[in-house]
Specification:
Rossmann fold; 18 helices; binds iron/sulfur cluster
């Protein structure tokens, strides 16, 4: 038997259809069901012999089944989120009743931001990790005393102790980590992961950690991944690609789910040189900074689609959120993507600081001008731990403290004196309608469906979900219009699933 604690790494079944967090940057219940891979949990899973990674929601594992599974383990590593936290506490209580000797660590951004509150919330939690937790939980499972593990907080003699921070991993250490895809192969079914704009089935993993950009709303670089951009070597990434191609012959594409994939030109060119002979299709996150030469190399290396956070078509709003990009850069980037044949899924946010009725209208026009393949429009959401959250709280624009309702659906919680949440929601609704109900966009979607039977079925289901969501949004807008000012209802489709 391996000389480590038998460890269960859990992305918990907080709510039905909840995309909880172990690589979802916006933890929430999605109305159009979709899940990201629990990438962060795969690394300790790969370093701990005898462990299991359980991603409950996409695999439809219930609370009861999770409790039953956890009874056979000595150590539970649970990736919690602010939205799922209260539910995760209830689950761990039940797990602990069934398996009283179990040790429990809570990992992820929530504990990083609020280690004291997290520990005070339940005696069931033995320790909380701060920052990257790959080695923190492995060291515990190997028997290292809590006092000697960097980057954790724990309880001692009734007091909370915060150990010194853990240094972030850089290239050599990142290359030494196991491949996330080895754990997918061991513990997950890749067909369970569906994201509307990616080909199905896809496999995703990271080639780097962190993002140097300072976008005020973006949670991960402000919590666990940081602003220092740290990369795996190109050879190491290419080796994982080869492994994934062989391990998953049914896979339609790889998604490089880095905070931002295309930060540095020379690295992108180096990667693409290694990708080209492997002849595989891939998509990635991207900022609008890459020039034509880089994009051409990416297209030649197999790139199919980028997820790009354009956020707004208003120059001042881009400055307000420290996007570090301009509308002109976005235009040039889109023009070059079109030239080299790479598609773009564009993310936009309504309700950022400085938003007005006019800026919403301008952003809709801007999106139509860019004419991305698909778009996603979200209401601004100020996650705890972000600059946006502090700013909105300070300025008195956080109207509802709760981030989500009892089902994990996002609640609208930002409102400006000149722009109500109902008006912002109407803006989201109008955005989708004006964008998608254009003949050329409708034809683009139908053309896609005509060529591919599998895609046809998927697009049909998504279209049905989209129309259902659209009618729920309309109902919500009417309720808001009729409701007293303090009524709180969750917003259909407000949750962003965008990753950049
Ligand atoms: S939104 Fe994208 S570019 Fe901005 S900080 Fe987050 S990951 Fe980086």
């Amino acid at each position: 038997m391996p000389d480590v604690m038998k460890t269960l790494l859990l992305n918990p079944p907080s709510f039905e259809n909840f995309d909880g967090g172990a690589s979802s940057r916006w933890p929430a219940t999605r109305e159009i069901e979709s899940y990201w891979y629990p990438v962060w949990l795969t690394y300790p899973a790969g370093m701990l012999p005898g462990s299991r990674l359980l991603d409950a929601s996409p695999h439809k594992v219930s609370w009861k089944q999770t409790i039953e599974i956890a009874k056979d383990y000595e150590f539970l590593v649970l990736f919690t989120s602010t939205v799922g936290f209260a539910s995760d506490l209830k689950l761990t209580r039940l797990i602990k009743e069934r398996n009283p000797g179990l040790k429990i660590a809570f990992v992820g951004p929530h504990g990083h931001i609020k280690p004291d509150e997290t520990l005070q919330a339940s005696e069931d939690i033995d320790f909380v990790t701060r920052g990257e937790f790959d080695h923190s939980v492995v060291e515990f499972a190997q028997g290292k005393p809590l006092a000697e593990i960097a980057g954790i907080s724990y309880r001692k003699d009734g007091k909370i102790v915060h150990n010194p921070d853990r240094a972030q991993l850089h290239t050599v250490e990142l290359d030494a980590l196991p491949f996330a895809t080895e754990i997918y192969k061991r513990d997950l079914e890749i067909e369970r992961y569906n994201v509307p704009f990616l080909l199905h089935p896809f496999v995703s993993f990271y080639t780097s950690r962190g993002c140097p950009a300072l976008c005020t709303f973006c949670m991960w670089p402000q919590t666990i991944s940081g602003h220092a951009w740290r990369v795996r070597s190109a050879e190491n990434v290419a080796r994982e690609v080869k492994f994934a191609i062989e391990a998953f012959p049914q896979m339609k594409e790889i998604f490089f789910d880095d905070d931002t994939f295309n930060i540095r030109k020379d690295r992108v060119l180096e990667l693409c040189k290694l990708f080209k002979p492997l002849k595989f299709r891939w998509s990635s996150t991207a900022r609008v900074h890459s020039d034509y030469e880089t994009l051409k190399a990416m297209a030649d290396g197999g790139a199919r689609l980028f997820i790009v956070g354009f956020e707004s078509g208003d120059a001042q709003i881009l400055k307000n959120i420290k996007k570090g990009a301009t509308v002109e850069m976005a235009r040039t980037f889109m023009k070059n993507c079109r030239k080299v044949g790479i598609r773009v899924h564009g993310d936009f946010i309504i309700g950022l600081p400085g938003e007005t009725r006019e800026s919403i209208a301008n952003t809709i026009e801007f999106a139509k001008e860019l004419d991305c393949e698909t778009i996603q429009v979200s209401l601004a959401h100020a996650m705890p731990g972000t600059e946006l959250h502090d700013q909105m709280a300070r300025d008195g624009f956080l109207r509802v403290e709760a981030l989500a309702d009892s089902g994990g659906h996002q609640l609208p919680h930002i409102e400006f004196p000149h722009l109500s949440k109902a008006e912002m929601m109407a803006g989201v609704h109008r955005f989708y309608d004006e964008y998608y109900f254009r003949p050329k966009v409708a034809w683009r979607i139908i053309r896609e469906a005509l060529w591919d039977g599998h895609e046809r079925k998927r697009l049909y289901h998504e279209a049905v979900d989209f129309l259902k969501l659209r009618s729920e949004r309309l109902k919500w807008a009417r309720q808001q219009h009729d409701a007293p000012a303090k009524t709180v209802v969750s917003v259909p489709g407000a949750a962003a699933s965008a990753n950049d």
